[in-house]
């Protein structure tokens, strides 16, 4: 609630003229967290250079990991403490496959257990937005007022096209414009105001109260709005999902509830099986057990699709922004905690790889790693190139930037041999090229780049949302396009198959975290 309240308050303060005047100079730009004291420190870089490796080929990846083992702390040829090896979900999986291939070697170092693979946050952000895109975006919805694609056309954002991974920042900007407009819509509705130019009634003696009391006031308003529209007047938006996943008596958990010592016991006799499918075949044949599959949710003929779509979009995009801002602010705890909220969305959109990645990340920080390793995994997720508490970037995003800039600044090296030989120089050359003006003092710095018309776009979407009367529940109001999701509570209906999926992919060690084929 604290993080979402901060995001909601920041949004309305930045986009409402009266609130910007009252709170713009006092509302914090940084949400304090455990690592705030060091979040603004510039990162020291020690380039290790490039390595020639095709990670699709396990022998080449094994050779690379053996080469990089010189950076693993060892004593008497045994690993003192493993180091983290980051990448996207495919790299994460391939490292574990390489470890499995070397599982019978004699020493930890030979078994490649000097490395713990992990997924990085930029690829998580991109895949989370792809999952949201699957639920909320369709080019067939151009005539449907209130949809993301409708506002893409209304705002003339022609750079929003194709796959999300090819235009991530453009898609993100579109979704954030709509999110800020929804936040303003909810705020104005809560305050009983119909127009953004209409003055908000603030508490008596508001001008004489302290800055902290003013901040507490706007946060309390935001919290009340979130409790109604995000949490649906409950304390836990995941309560229904958690009750099902954690309940061994629920039909969803029937086949995995008797797992003991790696074997599945029959519910009716003493037999046990190594594979859950064998147990299922036994009980169906011998004991005539039939577990009915959950029926699909029947379509509500009185559903207001526009209203439910708006609230679903609000919930999903503010969760994405929560992860995004946690990266910017260097808040590793919030970034890791976000994986729990991503998991059901990945599950219902069939993004299997990143659903597994969410399970692994949550497991690594919930008991598999020792406290010291867990601390490093949580805290060391970002780099800061310029200093400042809100200027952090994820490790894999910086690598993408470095890769892009290397191709421009170091284009003189054409052959593989010359590129590898000079690769340690590339980060320094990129830094030199990027700051040439300030280093040589030839001309003044260019200042900061501001996104043109962002506030105007937010107000344009807000005006259209108000014109469509989106917050008023109107039964039987439908979109022309039926390819979108209209489930205002997407988490509650993500339980089908989720419990078994978690059982199959929940690891019990930091290495070789591959799925259990028996489940």
Automatic annotation (TrEMBL):
- GO molecular function per UniProt: zinc ion binding
Under InterPro entries, the record lists:
DUF6589, Znf_C2H2_type
- What's the domain of life for this entry? Eukaryota
Keywords noted in UniProt = Metal-binding, Zinc, Zinc-finger
- What sequence ranges are listed for the domain C2H2-type? 264-287
* Name of this protein: Uncharacterized protein LOC111103895
Q: Which organism is it from?
A: Crassostrea virginica
């Amino acid at each position: 609630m604290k993080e979402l309240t901060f995001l909601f308050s920041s949004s309305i303060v930045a986009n409402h003229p009266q609130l910007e005047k009252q709170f713009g100079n006092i509302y914090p730009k940084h949400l304090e967290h455990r690592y705030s004291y060091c979040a603004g420190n510039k990162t020291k870089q020690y380039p290790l250079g490039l390595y020639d490796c095709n990670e699709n080929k396990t022998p080449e990846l094994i050779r690379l990991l053996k080469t990089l083992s010189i950076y693993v702390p060892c004593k008497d040829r045994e690993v003192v403490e493993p180091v983290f090896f980051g990448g996207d979900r495919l790299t994460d999986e391939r490292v574990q496959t390489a470890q499995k291939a070397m599982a019978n070697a004699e020493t930890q170092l030979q078994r490649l257990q000097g490395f713990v693979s992990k997924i990085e946050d930029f690829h998580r952000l991109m895949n989370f937005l792809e999952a949201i895109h699957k639920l909320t975006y369709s080019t067939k919805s151009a005539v449907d007022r209130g949809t993301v694609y409708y506002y893409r056309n209304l705002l003339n954002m022609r750079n929003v096209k194709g796959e999300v991974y090819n235009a991530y920042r453009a898609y993100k900007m579109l979704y954030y414009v709509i999110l800020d407009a929804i936040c303003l819509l909810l705020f104005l509705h809560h305050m009983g105001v119909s127009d953004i130019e209409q003055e908000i009634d603030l508490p008596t003696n508001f001008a004489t109260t302290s800055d902290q009391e003013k901040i507490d006031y706007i946060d309390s308003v935001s919290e009340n709005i979130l409790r109604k529209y995000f949490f649906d007047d409950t304390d836990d938006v995941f309560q229904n999902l958690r009750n099902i996943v954690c309940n061994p008596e629920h039909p969803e958990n029937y086949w995995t509830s008797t797992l003991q010592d790696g074997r599945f016991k029959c519910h009716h006799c003493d037999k046990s099986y190594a594979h859950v499918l064998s147990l299922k075949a036994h009980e169906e044949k011998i004991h005539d057990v039939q577990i009915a599959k959950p029926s699909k949710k029947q379509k509500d003929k009185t559903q207001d699709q526009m209203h439910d779509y708006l609230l679903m979009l609000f919930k999903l995009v503010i969760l994405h922004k929560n992860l995004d801002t946690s990266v910017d602010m260097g808040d590793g705890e919030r970034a890791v905690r976000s994986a729990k909220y991503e998991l059901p969305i990945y599950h219902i959109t069939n993004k299997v790889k990143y659903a597994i990645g969410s399970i692994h990340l949550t497991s690594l920080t919930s008991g598999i790693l020792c406290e010291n390793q867990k601390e490093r995994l949580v805290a060391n997720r970002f780099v800061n190139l310029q200093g400042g508490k809100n200027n952090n970037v994820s490790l894999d995003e910086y690598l993408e930037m470095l890769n892009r800039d290397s191709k421009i600044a170091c284009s003189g090296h054409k052959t593989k041999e010359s590129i590898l030989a000079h690769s340690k120089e590339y980060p320094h050359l990129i830094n030199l090229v990027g700051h040439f003006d300030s280093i040589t003092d030839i001309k003044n710095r260019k200042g900061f780049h501001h996104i043109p018309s962002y506030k105007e776009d937010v107000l344009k979407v807000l005006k259209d949302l108000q014109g469509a009367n989106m917050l008023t529940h109107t039964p039987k109001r439908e979109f022309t396009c039926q390819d979108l999701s209209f489930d205002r509570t997407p988490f509650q209906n993500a339980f089908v198959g989720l419990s078994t999926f978690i059982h199959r992919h929940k690891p019990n060690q930091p290495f070789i975290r591959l799925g259990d084929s028996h489940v």
